Structures are given as C-alpha cells and as structure tokens.
UniProtKB/TrEMBL annotation:
Binding site for NADP(+): 162, 178, 204, 208, 235, 278-284
Protein name: Riboflavin biosynthesis protein RibD
Pathway noted in the entry: Cofactor biosynthesis; riboflavin biosynthesis; 5-amino-6-(D-ribitylamino)uracil from GTP: step 3/4; Cofactor biosynthesis; riboflavin biosynthesis; 5-amino-6-(D-ribitylamino)uracil from GTP: step 2/4
GO biological process, one term: riboflavin biosynthetic process
Catalytic residues identified in the record: 58
Record-stated family: In the C-terminal section; belongs to the HTP reductase family. In the N-terminal section; belongs to the cytidine and deoxycytidylate deaminase family.
Amino acid sequence: MTSFTTVQTAAMQRALRAAASPDAPPGPNPRVGCVILSPDGDILAEGHHRGAGSAHAEVDALANLAATGASARGASVLVNLEPCNHQGRTGPCVQALLDAGVAEVIYAQDDPTEQAGGGAAALEAAGVRVRRGLCAQEAARLNRPWLLAVTRGRPMVTWKLAATLDGRIAAADGTSQWITPVAARHDAHRLRRQCDAIMVGTGTALADDPALTVRDEAGQPAPAHLQPLRVVVGSRSLPATSRVLADDHYLLLPDHDPRAVLAVLAEREIRHVLLEGGPTLATAFLRAGLVDQVVAYTAPVLLGAGPAALADFGAATITDALRLSHPRVEVLGAGDELAVRLCGDL
C-alpha cells in the first residue's frame, strides 16, 4: 500500500476544500482543487477549477505560483482528480505540469472518462513520479454526481421531500406552506445550490407556482450563473405569469418516461437533478429505479389527511420496500422550529 506523509495528507485535504469552493457552479465538469508543495513540504500555491471554460485546478495553481515569481520545478503537485491529458475548452493539464518541471504528482482518484483519462500514464512516461489513492473516498464523495453521470450516461437524481410525521406533503385543502420550519428551508436551498437542475411536474408548478431558484437566508436570489436549470415535466400548459417562466433558464418537457427525461438532460450536460415534484413524478422515477439519493425533511406535525409524499410504486409486501443505505440524520433548528433531515442512498 502506498504510504503518504502527514504533510501530503493535509495538502490533499486542502485541495479538496479548494475544490468545494462556492464560486465554482455545478455543471458538466468535476470539482477539482490543487496544492503545490516545495521539496521541503512547504505550500507554494493552490488553485481550483471554477467551472466549464475556466482554467483547470493545476493550471490555476501554477498561475498563482508564477504570480509570486517562484518556480514549480522539482515540486510535488497534489490534486483530487487525475490530471487530464486532452485538449478541450482548455489545454491538457499534463502538458502544463511537464512544462513547469514538477517532480511528483499525487492524486486522489482516477478520471474514468475516455476523453480526459490517461494523464497518469503520460506523466509517468515523461519521468514524473505519480502516486494515486490519497483521500480517495473523500474525493469520490465530493464528485459523486459527476462520477455517476459520466459512468452511467445520465444525471444523478436526488429526490427531496418535506413532509409531516404521518407522511403528508400538504393539508386536505391543498395548503402546504409551511410544513417544515425555516431552518429546513434554508438547508433545502443549500441542497439546491449543489444541483444543475431542479425538476417538478406541471401539477406542482400549477398548484404552488414555485420559483425554483436558489436563495440565501435573507431570501435574496443567488447570482444568475449559480442558478440551476428549472425543469417542468408534464403536458398541462402553464400560465405566462408562472414564476418558473420568469426568464429563459427553464425547460418544459412533455409527458416523457423518466429515462427519456434524463436523456434530454444528459444531452445538456446536466450532472445532478434535484427532484422536487409531488408524488406522481417521484413515484414514476422510483418505479423506474432512477432515484439515487433521498433527502427528507420531517417536521413534528400531524395532519391525518392530505396528499401523501409517494404513491404506489410496486412494493406489495414489506420485503419489496426500498431501504436507504448509509442513512444520515441531522436535527435542524430547535424547539417549535425543529425538523429532522434524513439523507440516504438508493
């Protein structure tokens, strides 16, 4: 097993934090951070990728180092994803590292794409020492939506729901604002911020007139380039005054099967879809086996009537139940403003 020093581990963790920087919008590219270490283990520079078309993390770090007047010759580069070896919107990172004269590259995770992969082999062929696997699990968690999308050919789907203790998403008269307290709603906006698209059905769009935008805790919308694509699925027409139609960053899809919907989104390089629709849309995706993660906000409220969060998806007996793996629970808020966030994978 490859052995890494404490300094190298700390540097990779710093690279992961840089990769998760909030100024990098969700999009077709993975989140990548890079740290450059001197031969003595001192941090020389760091950088991160800020979205499609911008400099890759390694190039950003090298540019930041060059701005100080220092050189990367003989340095170690730590990056959470294998350096790319292809010409896309930007040049290959492998060539930039070779031109800089680095002695070693340590990365967390292989690039599984045929287009960008192969960087490690190219570096090794040029005489650069390459080691892999440092903080691999953390790197995989960070880029899970991207990894799932590029390996399965469809976006990752997270189903988000907010319900009462008895599983109701609205009262019998249709009112639903607000089942969960403000702490849960703020957390849901942080979840939206991690996604490329938010999807609802026409039933939800007509009943609730949602804006489907990312907003901060003061209710102010995030910048336009950080807003996810708004997707409405269904054959019913929406009024021109619908908030989902407020600008041109939306997509209306007729009644498709879930796989066809995701195929359309994949063509647009959408990597992570947040499914916020009602029970009809959620049930269709669950029946198709196309929900990858569930995030459920539960409030200490009982209604006894009203629409349920989910319809019949084919579980005829308890052994047919879908059970979340790796469930995580978090308490949000306190007192009368308390809610529970349960997250797990399917």
